[in-house]
Amino acid sequence: SRKKFLLVLPAGKFEAEVVSVKGSHAKIRTALGPPDFSAKAVGLINHDGLAFGIKMKYGQRKILADCVSIGNPHAIISVNNFDFDWQGAGYYICHCSLFPDGVNVHFLKAINHKCFEMRTYERGTGVTKACGSGAAACLAVGVIRGLLHRKAVAVTEGGKLELDWDFTTGMIGQTGPADIICKGVFLG
């Protein structure tokens, strides 16, 4: 059976490799594109240059968002914990007027330089347990901010992803689980 694939998606072309398979559980490695920190790439209006340090307010909480595109737009907010209404803040940021097309919102808690936790509010979906491109976006912002090394593990509510940023090619790679969660028949 094939082990390497090229996925062609609206966000771009991505290489994927099956690392291992055990029953209905597989481990997959994908190469995502290089991060783009420009305001234009993330759809941030009224800003030129890099989309870093965007100041916002949610209730009484001041928010500093660092934005990056990994083929789709992400806003990363570094936090010390998740003991606040991050779901409401995620909704607010996702739908605020700065991002007319919306933005995926991630709250990044660095555990150490090699591991971080994240919570996700995705545009068009809401709260999700994980987001692969969001984990890559968190790594990129974490590295730029000095919070993370270029190789780190993302811990999401849906599982763990191993991430690495190749500074030579610019590509961010990730390795993680791909499990069958349901089966069905398409009658189309």
Keyphrases for this structure?
single chain, 188 residues, mainly beta, twelve-stranded mixed β-sheet, 3 helices, 46% strand
Structural class designation: mainly beta
Overall geometry comes to globular
Low-confidence stretches: none
Helices and strands, in order, run as: EEEHEEEHEEEHEEE
Total number of beta strands: 12
Number of helices: 3
Measured as a percent range, the helix fraction is 10-25%
Roughly what fraction of the amino acids lie in strands?
A: over 45%
How many angstroms separate the termini? 28 Å
- Gyration radius (Cα, Å) is 17 Å
Specify the biggest β-sheet.
12 strands, mixed
- What would the average pLDDT be, to the nearest integer? 93
Brief write-up:
The chain is mainly beta and 188 residues long.
Structure description:
The two termini are 28 Å apart. The protein is globular, with a radius of gyration of 17 Å. The longest helix is centred in the C-terminal third of the chain and has 13 residues, at 132-144. With 188 residues, the chain is mainly beta. The protein has 3 helices and 12 strands.
Task: Reconstruct the topology from this structure.
Blueprint: E1 4-9, E2 12-22, E3 25-32, H1 39-42, E4 54-58, E5 61-69, E6 73-78, H2 86-95, E7 104-112, E8 115-122, E9 126-128, H3 132-144, E10 151-156, E11 159-165, E12 172-179
Parallel strand pairs: 6-7, 8-10
Antiparallel strand pairs: 1-2, 2-3, 3-12, 4-5, 5-6, 7-8, 8-9, 10-11, 11-12
